[in-house]
Amino acid sequence: MPKSLPIHSPVSRRALLTTAGAVSLSAALTACGDSGGTGGTTAATAPVSQADIDKAMSTPTELTFWTWVPDIEQEIALFTRKYPAIKVKVVNAGQGVAHYTKLRTALQAGTGAPDVAQIEFQAIPTFTITDSLLDLRPYGASALKDKFVDWTWAQVSGAGGEVWAIPQDTGPLGMLYRQDIFDKYGIGVPKTWDEFAAAARKLHAAAPDIYLTNFAANEAAAWHGLLWQANAKPYALSGKSDISIKVNDETSKKLAAYWGGLAREGVIGVEPDFTDAWFAALNRGKYATWLTAAWGPLFLSGAAKSTAGKWRAAPLPQWDPSAPTSGNWGGSTSAVTRTTKNPIAAALFAQFLNSDPESVKLFTTKQFFFPATKALLADASFVGDAPAFYGGQQVNQVFADISGTVSPGFQWPPFLDRAVTDWTETVGKSLAAKTDTVVALDQWQTRLTTFAKSQGFTVQQ
Amino acid sequence: MTAGGSRALGAAGPAPGQPQPQKGLTMTATTAASYEDPHRTGSRRRRPGAVGLLFVAPFLVFFLVLFLAPLAYAAYLSLFQNRLIGGTTFVGLENYMTAVQDPLLIQGVLRVAKFFLLQVPLMLLLALLFALALDSGLLRLARVVRLGIFVPYAVPSVVASLMWGYLYGRDYGPFAQLSEAFDLPVPNFLSEGWMLGSLANIVTWEFVGYNMIIMYAALRAIPQDLYEAAAVDGAGPWRIAWSIKLPALRPALLLTLVFSVIGSFQLFNEPNLLQRIAPDVIDSAYTANLYAYSLAFTSQQINYAAAVSFLLGLVIVIVSYAVLFTANRRRTS
Question: What is the ipTM for the molecules in this complex?
Answer without folding.
Answer: 0.75
